[in-house]
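Sequence only, no structure available. Ideas?
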Amino acid sequence: NLCYDLSVTNMISPTEEELMSAGYTPKDDVIEQMHEPWNVPDGVVPEHLRKTHAMYETFMGRVKHGTNTPFATKIYKVVREIEEQIDELQDGRKGEFRSPLNQIK
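Reply:
I predicted one. Tokens follow.
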């Protein structure tokens, strides 16, 4: 999982009051908070059953077929948007940026 990959051992989260005082405006006046770890969503392979050598192909296949989790979809879209911005900032060399996601074999 992402926390393991990034060696995250603690996650600090501001309180609802801190978020609001800093100017955060939640959608629908609700701030979703995580109070305990969540279960693995349906369709996600448990970590102990994952085949490291097949993870990229599995993930990209899910992206292609629209079968990944909503969270994975959001993360993927953010990464691709960042890459688009990088490509546009290439000082007249638009189109030269090559995504690392496309270079994995």
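The chain has a mean pLDDT of 78.
Hope that gets you unstuck.
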